[in-house]
Amino acid sequence: MTEQIKIRREKQGDFREVFELNHIAFGQDNEAKLVDALRINQIAFVPELSIVATDNNKIVGHILFSKISIKDDKGNLNESLGLAPMAVRPEYQKCGIGGQLIRKGFEVAKELGFKSVIVLGHEHYYPKFGFQPADKWKIKAPFDVPSNVFMAIELATDGLKNISGTVVYPKEFETV
Ligand SMILES: CC(C)(COP(=O)(O)OP(=O)(O)OC[C@H]1O[C@@H](n2cnc3c(N)ncnc32)[C@H](O)[C@@H]1OP(=O)(O)O)[C@@H](O)C(=O)NCCC(=O)NCCS
């Protein structure tokens, strides 16, 4: 099944299918609506970082990375990326598609000059791709969350060197 999976940038004609995919993977509409809302945030949205996995032209996976900031205690903002949400159709899960989407996202993000990614998610899943607890860099979530599920990765050597503080998410995340 995975041999015929293609990974590519999302196109406008994909939006409805991506909504349905998020709806089915999460069993609710919140994440699907978040993706729709983030696409129209001209500051946070990076079109190259909304990526889909297809099987025979059917969308079976999607990942989105949006611009976020890390605000230090002096109020300085450092740009990073937030990985959220990502979804794979239930019948295609555990075949490595999620991993392919993450790795492609990292590759594109590096090409675009981003130096790090932050994720809130499964503590056993994301470390497979190099994520480590964000408190290693003294980076905190803007809400109460167990430290092992709030993670970061450097895309470039020392991508988070001397960067610490609290993550500021685009306002669209407040409604999820
Ligand atoms: C989280 C999610 C996106 C992962 O996608 P996925 O395509 O299943 O991910 P992968 O296949 O890369 O990895 C999943 C697991 O399968 C394993 N795996 C990867 N390739 C495999 C293969 N060829 N054969 C068997 N297992 C494999 C991985 O090691 C991983 O193991 P784990 O269960 O111990 O973590 C998917 O489960 C999903 O959509 N979940 C619902 C929505 C959600 O929770 N999203 C994340 C929060 S934003």
UniProtKB/TrEMBL annotation:
Matching SUPFAM superfamilies: Acyl-CoA N-acyltransferases (Nat) (SSF55729)
Keyword Transferase among UniProt keywords: yes
All residue ranges annotated as the N-acetyltransferase domain in the record: 5-156
GO MF: acyltransferase activity, transferring groups other than amino-acyl groups
Pfam families found in the cross-reference section: Acetyltransf_1 (PF00583)
Highest rank taxon of the organism: Bacteria
Keywords in alphabetical order: Transferase
Official protein name in the record: Putative N-acetyltransferase YhbS
Organism field: Runella defluvii
